[in-house]
Amino acid sequence: MQKATLTPYFEADGDAFKPNAIAQGGWGPTLGGHVIGGLLARAIDAQRTDPDLLPVRLTVDMLRRVATEPVQAHAEVLRIGSRMQATDGTLTQNGEVVARASALYLRRGEQPGEAAWSTPIEMPPLPTEPAEFDDAMPMFVKPYGRDPGVGEGMVWQHDGPRYGWVREVRELVAGEPNSPFVQAALAVDVTASLTGFSTTGLGFINADYTLTLCRLPEGPYIGMAALSHYSEAGLATGTASLFDTRGPIGTGVTTAIANPHFGKRSFVRSSE
Q: How far is Cα 42 from Cα 177, in angstroms, rounded to an integer?
């Protein structure tokens, strides 16, 4: 079914990107972490020197709250080797660096024949899409966790396994289809919510996140399965496995700090 064109996160304006209202995150009148990472991934990938190089890691540091105002994204290649490329990116606003990222690219090659062990994970089925996506929602997220009808709050707000299928439904920059790398960079920020919920709400706000990939995602959906949440003294780290419909593609890792003021807030606006 043909779906309506939804409002993009940003409009290009010279060397700046002007955010639309949908780019605002869930923690106040600031840009969401997913679009910050998306812009940095876009700028970094524009510096890729060889199509056989695969982005295997992207780490995004959110250095300060980013106002819903124009930003600039820049990237610089730090080193190129025969099998790798290292690239850094920065996001600036009003002349100040507000976020940064580092990325590692490795060259594809022959796959060893031996199979390595990994924790088996079975993802829930793909969700049924609505006839039209909601233009008020930043992305389409189908969460799985608490059984329907048991308890209150978001389905991730329970003491048990959590999964989700994430589909980006809009362009990061108007007029540009999202690349698979940008698609993954937009989705991986959900790791913080997926792993950070407790039975009473989301008590942590993430300071960074890392995306690792063994291959780029195929198709519009990225699946996520929470693996761990460890926290003490108001500091937390969480990890998730990432999938597409063909199988595993990588991991998401986040570090976070306690933010009790938002402890009962459901950060992810989703389709349940």
A: 11
- Is residue 43 within 8 Å of residue 75, measured between CB atoms? yes
The yes-or-no verdict on residue 146 having pLDDT over 80 is yes
Are 190 and 140 in contact by the 8 Å Cβ rule? The answer is no
| pTM as predicted | 0.92
Q: Residue 265: name the closest of 198, 179, 187 by CA.
A: 198
Domain annotation for the chain: domains and CATH numbers: 10-108+138-262 (2.40.160.210)
Name the nearest CA neighbour of 210 among 118, 102, 91, 106: 102
Q: pLDDT tens digit string along 156-179?
A: 999 999 999 999 999 999 999 999
Nearest to 142 by CA among 153, 156, 131: 156
The phi, psi pair for 54, rounded to 5°, reads -110, 135
Helix axes 33-45, 180-188, angle to 10 degrees: 150
- pLDDT single digits (tens) 183-214: 999 999 999 999 999 888 888 999 999 999 99
